[in-house]
Amino acid sequence: MKYTSILTCLLGCVSLGYAQNKMPQAEEKKMQVFISNLMGKMTVDEKIGQLNLPSVGFDVTGPILSQGVDEKIEKGLVGGVFNTYTPQAVRKLQDIAVKQSRLKIPLLFGYDVVHGHKTIFPIPLGLSCTWDMSLIEKSARIAAKEASADGLSWTFSPMVDITRDPRWGRMSEGSGEDPYLGSLIAKAMVKGYQTNSLTRKDAILACVKHFALYGAAESGRDYNTTDMSLNRMYNEYLPPYRAAVNAGVASVMSSFNDINGVPATANKWLLTDVLRKQWGFSGFVVSDYTGINELVPHGLGNLQQVSVLALKAGVDMDMVGEGFLTTLKQSLNEKKISIADIDRACRRILEAKYKLGLFSDPYKYINEQRAATEILTPQNRADARMIAERSLVLLKNDKQVLPLKKSARIALIGPLADNRRDMIGNWSAAGDWQKAVSILEGLKNVAPQLDITYAKGANLVDDPLILKQINHNGADIVPDKRSPEELIRDAVSATKKADVAVVVLGESALMGGEATSRTSLDLLPNQKELLKAVTATGKPVVLVLMNSRPLTLEWEDANVSAILETWFAGTEAGNAIANVLTGNYNPSGKLTATFPHNVGQIPIYYNHKNTGRPYSGDLMDKYKSRYIDSPNEPLYPFGYGLSYTTFIYSPVTLSAATLTGTQTLQASVTVTNTGNFDGEEVVQLYIRDMVGSITRPVKELKGFEKIFLKKGESRKVTFNISVNDLKFYNNSLNYVAEPGDFKIFIGTNSRDVQEASFTLK
Ligand code: NOJ
User: Fold this and answer.
1) Which of 612, 621, 633 is nearest to 752 (CA)?
2) Bridge partners of 501?
3) CA of 672 to the centre of ligand 1 (A)
4) Is residue 351 in contact with ligand 1, taking CB distance under 6 Å?
5) Does ligand 1 have an atom closer than 6 angstroms to the CB of 294?
6) What is the pLDDT of residues 154-189, one digit of tens each?
7) Of all atoms in ligand 1, which is nearest to the CA of residue 255?
8) Partner of 121 for a Cys bridge, out of 116, 250, 351, 668, CB 3.0 to 4.6 A?
9) Tens of pLDDT, residues 640-659
10) Is the CB of 214 under 6 A from ligand 1?
11) What residues contact residue 71 under an 8 Å CB cut-off, 6+ apart?
């Protein structure tokens, strides 16, 4: 599968061309007539009611709870609810709306279906490491089928925030650091959720979030400020949101953060000028959880004032905070807003309901039969397993310690080895961890002949402060009665009797996700002690990692034999990981976020600028952009990931030395599988613009192709490069390609590449 040049459509302002789910004109007209008629009958209170989105039901995903929701629905004061699912629970509320409220307007039912509904896929950061758009789309499709069978009509996904700071716990929810890859993934997910027709029973509204720049929170501290040049925004951070809009996403969630002095939720430039006027977005904007109320501590005024600011900026729906519900009428009476401001928002929400077909059938998503037969099916689980296998990234494999030998005696060690609770990761929606497969179970399932001794070795979290917080949020970690020394002793003794130790360590799932920023990205000290003790036995050690963000693994990289990054791989985690450990599947995942040596290097990302004093590696060269106590280079670069086989790349050949006008240039390499396993490889294309009117990154991903090669097989891979692939936003925010010299890099990751050069005339 090849991805190049789709870029133009995703990133560029020129070819906004297609938008999915655009209605034919006659249909559009019919909808507008219907909605105008309906709005003609609505009171101001009922119109404001449509802008209200309380949380009620099974989950708490924010700091306060909505009250009196049933009564408000009955009075027509609710447009939708979230955190309620199952046909029974949804029917109960929809009944109130369509049987007891005056105008019988159906409700939307939203939920954070972020990486699967009940069949849980790898966390989004893991999913992105598949570099496989059809599989990512498939995961969203399955999620939408299950969610829609369980009463839901709207998911708060995809999260497409570009992230370069692994201290931020929400890195797990997105696709890493690259705008090009992030844009393709945004598009795939929107397509998977919405399909080409929202009237389908198994299509739901997608919601791209968090608009915008939430991933750039200062210091990696959640909800923190962002301050960014337009140039960086347009070239690096905004493309994935725009790709979602171009793909027809039905809704957008405004983010919590401040952007250059105006929080996103009150930012008219962002929500109206950029989103609607520049990008042509025609769906509705929902605030994040109490995002409007939070404009008060941001310092923009009292609740009435900030509700006016948010509505006028372009927020249509108020999540939980009821600033709209409780103040907009007064603001209307005081002429601080006009009825047109309320009508505009109300219309957009009614349009979404109409497009889903809820006015014709408010019970469209309520079907007990579907709920009983379409959720967590064997097929969905098989797909989840297959996708999870492809999301695992092999970071190190000395002396081919992996795959495990069939006859090996294995010491399986660690608090995440015999653990179902954490496999489904954070934001795992309605996922039931008890349905998940642990690694111990997975190894027994896929390789029953293996001789395995299990030892826990350490508590997952010993640090009392962290433990208290994550347990408060539902981690359910009960510290082992044995002392840390005793736990380690057992693990060491199991290792001594084994041929190889497989040590499964990392974070608790709830150390990732919202409000989980960390200042250290090392393994927790008690886990590190265990690893050191096991390694000291001299036996080969395979470290299997589970974590929500890149960790700092300098010691581990230097001291263990093999490292397999598995993120949180979902319901089928154990089977997928076992298949990779035993060689039933040869790993092919590639990192989508840089792994630093240390926290001091953060933010760290491959597509950085060169500076005026770039460092060449000479320690005695003082006046260079560098550290005196750390390399500049990361531990594992973007795009990195090993296979059990080896791939050799030929030099790059170009079809011409120059590119002009509407031509395309072909850049080719031949890749040969020179090892002992069949396997998949992601061949990556990067380009550098050598001279520009503004400084340009040292490298930017512009294409990739995932290929399968049998051992001994070779394949020529050709990328077509056109002027559109060379475009960027200049300082006047024009999307241009500037004539001059370019470098092309093709390789197995962003560091290990072959180069060639050409000139754009
Ligand atoms: C807050 C989170 O920031 C957002 O991602 C989520 O969709 C909402 N809560 C709803 O749960």
Assistant:
1) 633
2) 411, 541
3) 45
4) no
5) no
6) 999 999 999 999 999 999 999 999 999 999 999 999
7) 3
8) 116
9) 999 999 999 999 999 999 99
10) no
11) none
Q: CB-based contacts of 569: which residues, under 8 Å, 6+ apart?
A: 122, 126, 388, 391, 392, 423, 425, 546, 576, 577
Q: Ligand 1 centroid to 453 CA: how many Å?
A: 41
Index of the ligand 1 atom closest to the CA of residue 112: 7
Q: What is the mean pLDDT of residues 553-566?
A: 98
If you average pLDDT over residues 121-134, what whole number do you get? 98
Q: Write down the mean pLDDT value for the chain.
A: 96
Which of 289, 294, 317, 517 to mutate for ligand 1's pocket (most ligand atoms within 8 Å of CB)? 289
**Type of residue at 87:** P
Q: Measured from the CB, is residue 62 less than 6 Å from ligand 1?
A: yes
Peptide bond into 603 cis (omega under 30): yes
53 neighbors 81 (Cβ within 8 angstroms): yes
Beta strands in 420-507 (DSSP E): 451-455, 500-506
Q: Whose CA is nearest to atom 1 of ligand 1?
A: 289
Structure tokens at 641: 């990931």
Measured in Å, residue 420 CA sits from the centre of ligand 1 at 25
Q: Count of alpha carbons within 13 Å of 210, Cβ hemisphere only?
A: 26
Using alpha carbons, select from 313, 337, 315 the residue that is nearest to residue 327.
Answer: 337
Q: Which fold has domain 387-592?
A: Rossmann fold (3.40.50)
CATH for 647-760 is 2.60.40.10
Cβ pair 494, 525 in contact under 8 A: no
pLDDT tens per residue, range 312-327:
999 999 999 999 999 9
> What is the structure's pLDDT at 21?
66
Mean pLDDT on 711-728: 98
The domain spans of the chain are 25-110+338-376, 387-592, 647-760
- Residue 704, pLDDT score: 98
Residue 64 DSSP SS3: coil
pLDDT tens digits, one per residue of 438-485: 999 999 999 999 999 999 999 999 999 999 999 999 999 999 999 999
Q: How far apart are CA 362 and CA 89, in angstroms?
A: 14
List the alpha helices (DSSP H) in 233-302.
Answer: 239-246, 268, 295-298
Q: Is the dihedral of CA 641, 645, 650, 656 positive or negative?
A: negative
Question: Mind listing the pLDDT tens digit for each residue in 31-53?
Answer: 999 999 999 999 999 999 999 99
Centre of ligand 1 from the C-alpha of residue 211, in Å: 12
Tell me which residue has its CA closest to atom 3 in ligand 1: 288
Strands ordered across the beta sheet of 2-4 = 2-4, 700-709, 679-689, 740-747, 753-760, 658-659
The dihedral sign for the CA sequence 400, 403, 409, 412 = positive
Q: Is 288 in the pocket of ligand 1 (CB under 6 A)?
A: yes
pLDDT at 59: 85
- Alpha helices for 582-732 (secondary structure H): none
Residue 528 to residues 365, 458, 482, 532, 634, Cα–Cα distance (Å): 48, 9, 18, 6, 21
CA of 518 to the centre of ligand 1 (A): 20
Q: Enter the pTM of the model.
A: 0.97
